[in-house]
Specification:
Length: about 240
């Protein structure tokens, strides 16, 4: 796979200071990989070997169908289906295995080209992040100015901190927890405010920041990027 597909400058992810920067990283990786795999890379033999072997999870089938042409999806599926058939039904596979999907092709063990490559590249990017945090004062400041680290990515960064020297790992984890908890408290207060606005006594009250409290709370809990309300959108 081409190296530059997933290279993202870390500071670019942290510049907006809005929402979780690692959610932003995931969303970028996901859309780059989906576009890559349905673009020219689809015809590269080594990439096709991988998509034939791994397939896609249900979420990423949806994503490639959104970005790719019908023909590119069909070509990917054509050779993937052939490989699935070979693994599950061929004469070679049958005698040893009483069950249909005795091995790696078992549907419950879902593998996915995009999930695997996201994980691999996320690990590289988090390594660069830790490296920057360890040696650049300016990046530490940028990091501490973030609005939010979602619950999912706070866990991820806490785990990754074991790759830092112990002296650096402790303040890093404390910072991760501070960012994640302070956002949780903000979103909690906004959800409460949202609920109160339904009280008839508040009918002319100020919604404050609570109109998209539901979306922000779900984004915080799930690690799914939320980029803000569209203007004029009013579901409250
Ligand atoms: Zn996140
Ligand atoms: Zn996937």
């Amino acid at each position: 796979m081409r190296e530059d597909i997933c290279s993202i400058p870390i500071s670019e992810l942290f510049e907006p200071k809005k929402g979780c920067p690692i959610c932003r990283m995931d969303a970028m990786l996901e859309s780059r990989l989906a576009e890559y795999i349905t673009g020219a890379a689809m015809m590269e033999p080594d990439v096709r070997i991988e998509t034939n072997r791994l397939g896609f999870c249900s979420h990423h089938f949806d994503r490639i169908c959104e970005v790719g042409s019908r023909l590119s999806i069909a070509l990917i599926l054509e050779s993937h289906l052939k490989e699935v058939e070979e693994r599950a039904f061929s004469a070679k596979a049958a005698p040893k295995k009483k069950k249909l999907f005795g091995g790696a092709a078992a549907p419950e063990k879902e593998t996915c080209f995009i999930c695997e490559n996201m994980e691999k590249n996320r690990n590289h990017l988090v390594d660069s992040l830790l490296n920057l945090w360890g040696k650049e004062e300016e990046f530490r400041r940028l990091f501490s100015e973030q609005e939010c680290l979602c619950l999912h990515h706070a866990h991820l960064l806490e785990d990754a901190a074991s790759r830092l020297p112990k002296k650096a790992a402790e303040p890093f984890c404390a910072e991760v927890r501070r960012l994640s908890q302070s956002y949780l408290q903000t979103v909690e207060a906004d959800v409460t405010h949202f609920c109160r606005m339904f009280d008839y006594r508040n009918k002319d009250g100020d919604w404050g920041n609570s109109r998209d409290a539901i979306e922000r709370a779900i984004a915080y809990l799930t690690g799914r990027l939320y980029t803000g309300r569209e203007d004029g959108e009013d579901k409250a």
